[in-house]
Design a protein that fits this description.
Keywords: Oxidoreductase
Region (Disordered): 13-34
Largest sheet: 7 strands, mixed
Pfam family, one: Transketolase_C
Distance between the termini: 50 Å
EC number: 1.2.4.4
Helix content: 25-40%
Number of strands: 16
Number of helices: 15
Domain Transketolase-like pyrimidine-binding: 98-273
């Protein structure tokens, strides 16, 4: 068995190697050596090797035959062992190349296999769903456990609440997060408050709502929204947004097994674009725990979901500006040390990790796709100002979507792109 100190040191070194933004070679037909900006396809934030996947921070194995909400108290989830790192043919933990929708399907398969009370339902889920996340599950587990519902979001939510109240593990899919609003009353006034208003006698904690969210490039005002901020005041419901396949599987398994209702929002643009080596076994990642993706000393940037990759692109251009940008980026900022944090859980979020980072760097930027008014960025900014006021060297910068309906033709201009992020970095550092 590896010592805990050796494990932690290896994990730190692996994280540093993952987060380093190295210049990428130019195309074969290019005569000029240029550093190409990273994309989701070749992001340094993704774990594309087996060893990197197994060293995912916070990963805990669940090797019991039966796992679920309300089951007999299991043994503590297992940490990584030396034997896990052996080659697969020698008994090591296996991984498989997956995109995000495949990782979500793997998580749902694991839940249905280990929890006989689990049911997966929603519009078109028995056919595989719009994004294929439930493909083949009805064939494997039967249409009594994986089934379609009528097109009624409030009905899906109400049915899920009743099912969870009766002791089942309910996994409900809202086909698009944009259409979750008819179910808002059920989620906020029933699911969130059920335990509280019954004095702890009843609850629907074994209920999870999955829903595709965020921009996809052409979704417009009814298929590209990020509604997570609407649930900031829904005390009793947790809200989670994953950034990658490994994160999606581990966080979804934790969400389904958490004894509280959880809204699990899946950025649809990442379903096929983000690819990692994902452990095929049963594992969980902690809720309400932010992850420091790269360490820094000069500036903290906090985000979640797809904007993390846009931030990575912006940081690349900061260090390796193109000819068009070179005159606009001060030389003194080219080697800026930036700490990048993935919030992961939006409600309740991990303020301690954020505060620790901002107290170190003295500056902070919050980035997300949702509009600014009443947003996660506003909430975080207020908390940071209250807790870090004497350490701040500049106001907290918020880079978000605009306070308008999500435009179809202007979707590219709605999102905080790498130019807006670069501009925010320069403004914050010059304050």
């Amino acid at each position: 068995m590896l010592t805990q100190r050796a494990l932690k040191e290896f994990a730190r070194s692996a994280t540093r190697s993952l987060s380093s933004s190295l210049p990428r070679p130019s195309p074969a037909n290019s005569h000029t050596a240029v550093a190409l900006p990273p994309t989701v396809a070749n992001s340094g934030l993704l774990r594309t090797a087996r060893d990197e996947a197994l060293w995912t921070p916070g990963l805990r194995w669940r090797d019991e035959d039966r796992v679920g909400v309300g089951f007999a108290a299991p043994q503590a989830a297992a940490e990584l062992q030396e034997s896990d790192l052996r080659a697969e043919d020698e008994g090591g933990r296996p991984t498989e190349k997956m995109n995000m929708y495949q990782a979500i399907r793997s998580a749902l398969h694991t839940v249905l296999e280990k929890d006989e009370s689990a049911m997966v339902f929603g519009e078109d889920v028995s056919f595989g769903g719009v994004f294929r996340c439930t493909m083949g599950l009805a064939d494997s587990f039967g249409e009594e456990r994986v089934f379609n519902t009528p097109l009624t979001e409030q009905g899906i939510a109400g049915f899920g609440i009743g099912l969870a109240t009766m002791g089942h593990t309910a996994v409900a899919e809202m086909q698009f997060a944009d259409y979750i609003f008819p179910a808002f009353d059920q989620i906020v006034n029933e699911a969130a408050k059920y335990r509280f208003r019954s004095g702890g006698m009843f609850n629907c904690g074994s209920l999870t709502f999955r829903s595709p969210c965020s921009a996809v490039g052409h979704g417009g005002l009814y298929h590209s929204q990020s509604p997570e901020a609407y649930f900031l005041q829904a005390s009793g419901v947790k809200v989670v947004v994953p950034r990658s396949p490994i994160q999606a599987k581990g966080l979804l398994l934790s969400a389904i097994r958490d004894p509280n209702p959880v809204l699990f929002l899946e950025p649809k643009i990442l379903y096929r674009s983000a690819v990692e080596q994902v452990p095929t076994g049963d594992y969980e990642l902690p809720l309400s725990s932010a992850e420091v993706l790269r360490e820094g000393a000069d500036l903290t940037i906090v985000s979640y979901g797809p904007p993390l990759y846009t931030i990575e692109t912006a940081l690349h251009h900061l260090k390796h500006p193109s000819e068009e940008l070179a005159a606009l980026i001060p030389e003194s900022l080219r080697n800026l040390s930036v700490e990048l944090i993935d919030l992961r859980t939006i409600v309740p979020y991990d303020i301690e990790t954020v505060v620790k980072s901002v107290n170190k760097t003295g500056r902070c930027i919050v980035v997300h796709e949702a509009p600014q008014s009443g947003s996660v960025a506003n909430e975080l900014s207020a908390e940071i100002q209250q807790r870090c006021f004497l350490r701040l060297e500049a106001p907290v910068k918020r880079l978000t979507g605009w306070d308008t309906p999500f435009g179809l033709a202007y979707e590219k201009f709605y999102l905080p792109d790498h130019i807006r992020i670069l501009d925010g970095i320069i403004e914050t550092m010059r304050y």
